[in-house]
Amino acid sequence: NLPGQLALLLAIALFAAQAINLALVLRDRANFRLAQATRPAAVRIADALERADERPIFDDFTAAVAEAASQAKIGPGLDPSTELGPLVSQEQFDRVSGYLAAGLADGARALTGGKRWGDEGFFIEPTVFVDVDPSFSIVQEEIFGPVLVVIKYRSVAEAVAIANDSEYGLSAGVWSEDIDAALDVAAQIESGTVWI
After folding, report:
1. What is the mean pLDDT of each run of 10 residues along the chain (196 residues)?
2. CB 153 within 8 A of CB 132
3. Helix residue spans in the chain (DSSP H)
4. Which listed residue, of 44, 73, 94, 143, carries a Cα 20 to 30 Å from 103's Cα?
């Protein structure tokens, strides 16, 4: 739950396969809209669950999400085929660009995006950051741009602590195949709304 933003705790997927399936669905859905998936902007994903063979899924998951983000059709907001339109103003463009630069300067790694798209307008490439610390400004502050921040966790308790480590908390989402586990996690998240 990032400040002032629709913040999804994507993939408190208590089953690792669910997280991989989610990423593949995001990539393959014809009607995938990055702007809707990340609305209004930065999203925190906490996911480092392990498969039965104890191989971490974080890299597979983030690679699939980054691939989906990189394939979003960027263009004018009035074009029906556009999946991601421009930011609202030069001021917001400069603000988001500043957060991208700050994230990179802090040591975050952009799997995709991280800069302006094109030469005209207020377009920012969909960006997926990894290698972040919860203290980074791209995690703690409002961005309101197409920026996804991915944070690893080792346990559900740690994921909840990361989600709750914010001054803000408009909304969050819990993804799981186990409704009882999802309800338990949702009850622990300090947010105005929690989707399951």
Report:
1. 31 34 40 34 38 61 89 92 93 97 97 95 95 91 88 85 83 83 90 87
2. no
3. 16-28, 34-37, 58-70, 90-106, 137-140, 156-164, 179-188
4. 73
Helices and strands, number each (H, E), in the chain: 7, 6
Is 0.85 topped by the overall pTM?
Answer: no
The residue to which tokens 């989600």 are assigned: 163
Q: DSSP character for 74?
A: B
Phi, psi for residue 111 in degrees, rounded to 5: -70, -30
In angstroms, the CA 145 to CA 195 distance is: 21
Record the tokens describing residue 154, joined without a space: 């080792």
CB 141 within 8 A of CB 164: no
DSSP character for 4? T
Is residue 191 within 8 A of residue 1, CB to CB? The reply is yes
CA distance 5 to 18: 25
Which of 41, 48, 84, 19 lies closest to 162, judged by CA?
Answer: 48
Residue indicated by tokens 């925190």: 44
Integer Cα distance of 131 and 103 in angstroms:
10
Place of tokens 């263009």: 75
